[in-house]
Amino acid sequence: MKRIQHSEVRGRLVDAAAVVVLTYQIIAAALDPPGPAYGGPVALVWLAGAAAGLPLVLRRRWPAPVFAVVTTVAAIATATGVVGFGVIFLVWMPVAVAAYSAAAVTAWSPALLLLAAGLAAPAVTIPWLYLRTGVTPASAPQSEAPLWWQVETGIAVVVIALAWAAGRLVLWRRTLQTEEALRMARDAVADERLRIARELHDIVGHSLSLITVKATVANHLAEERPAETRAALQTIEKTSRSALTEIRRLLDVLRDDGEPAGLTPAPGAADLPELVERMRSAALQIDLDLDLAGGLPTAVGLTVYRIVQESLTNVVKHSGASRCRVAVRSHRGEVHIEVTDDGQGQAPSRRRRTGQGLIGMRERVSMYGGRLATGADPEGGFRVTAVIPYTPTEEDA
Q1: Which candidate, 194, 233, 89, 226, places its Cα nearest to that of 148?
Q2: 291 — alpha (psi -120 to 50), left (phi > 0) or beta?
Q3: 54-66 residue pLDDT tens
Q4: Domain span at residue 180?
């Protein structure tokens, strides 16, 4: 905020200095022109110069009104002769500056009207002044500037037109920048929605699948095997609590009421033993081989956790496997993940229409430029392998 304020103050000071210089040039040109000098009161020259130049100080705040004022003043000063012959274009320089400012913030139709007015005023008043006074090159043979109304009118018209075109170009570039910023904002929102949807899918899909399996086990074994039933119910309790915690953490990110977000850390590779313990059952034995050389970045650790979680969820739901092996190893800036089972060897996407789990895993891996391979294992069962590159920490290097 302070930088913006300093920039605005600096811009206004530069504008004020430029306006003072331009106003002085307009007055000096009228008092000591190349051609015949103005014979009226000197105070009128000062008044005309100030009225033509000083309003430019307000051009950033009120561009269109300032343009109307300076154009009117320049037209009156030219028509009445309170200008310097040979350098009449100087009194029209404020009009060019105001035309630039107005064109840079005005819609097409008003901008075209401003341009028409800005070009018509000098095109009418300058020839009128020359015809009314009868000034010709012979009137001032020693003049440093040509005393032709065609030249003076052409200079004023070209300068105003170029300034207006520059203003439109600036507006066009600002519009492109605004559209690009909006597009980037929309893309960021879409990416965030995709990330949240992916997280919710992994959390809810995994938790509900595990709860369903364990509840089915508990229901069938409630009377015959009370110990296994109790273990299944404990798993359901832990899984539901974990899911609620993760969902609260995810939804805290979306809070916009000024309240601080929850401080519960996101799951990572270090939480894989607990995940595997929850997924184990009498019908499914899971072996975990975890070898992490140093720590993983938080985002990479979350990705590793979600990939293993989704893979184990698919094993429980679709494979009919009795044994599963999970291997996670990191070495020299890469983490290798492998999940294999001895089930039916059929991809979950063939059993479901959407296969969002595998799609989510591919998206997570592709964010880091990694590789994911899924398919039937030649020795039987199904295999998921992933390689995720990351920037190693000092401990891991």
Answers
A1: 89
A2: beta
A3: 999 988 889 999 9
A4: 2-184
Please report, as a single letter, which amino acid is at residue 26.
I
Picking from 391, 386, 373, the residue whose alpha carbon sits closest to that of residue 337 is 386
**3-class secondary-structure state, position 395:** coil
- The reply to whether 304 and 176 lie within a common domain is no
Check pLDDT > 70 for residue 348: no
User: Coil, strand, or helix at residue 5?
Assistant: helix
| Shared-domain flag, residues 173 and 287 | no
Q: Is residue 206 part of a domain?
A: no
- Please give the tally of structural domains in the chain: 2
Residue 20, domain member (yes or no): yes
Give me the pLDDT at residue 351, please: 43
Handedness of CA 218, 222, 224, 227 (dihedral sign): positive
Whether residue 173 sits in one domain with residue 313: no
Whether residue 175 is found in the same domain as residue 292: no
Residue pLDDT, tens place only, 143-173: 667 788 888 899 999 999 999 999 999 999 9
Listed as own residue / partner, the contacts of 142-146 with beta carbons closer than 8 Å and 24 or more positions apart are: 143/34, 143/35, 143/85, 143/86, 144/34, 144/86, 145/34, 145/35, 145/86, 145/87, 146/86
Task: Give the pLDDT band of residue 280 (cuts 50, 70, 90).
Answer: confident
Domain co-membership, 298 together with 151: no
* Residue partners of 337: CB distance under 8 A and separation at least 6: 304, 307, 308, 327, 328, 384, 385, 386, 387, 388
Contact 155, 89 (CB under 8 A): yes
Residue 287: DSSP 8-state: E
**For the chain, what percent of residues have pLDDT higher than 70?**
73
Q: Is residue 38 part of a domain?
A: yes
What is the distance, to the nearest Å, from the Cα of residue 278 to the centroid of all Cα atoms in its chain?
42
- Put simply, whether the predicted model's pTM sits higher than 0.85 gets the answer no
Q: CB-based contacts of 321: which residues, under 8 Å, 6+ apart? A: 284, 315, 341, 342, 343, 344, 381, 382
Last residue of a domain, one of 184, 210, 245: 184
Range 83-108 average pLDDT: 91
Domain membership of residue 304 (yes or no) is yes
Do 165 and 298 lie in one domain? The reply is no
3-state helix, strand, coil in the chain (%, to 5): 65, 10, 25
Domain boundary among 167, 184, 201: 184
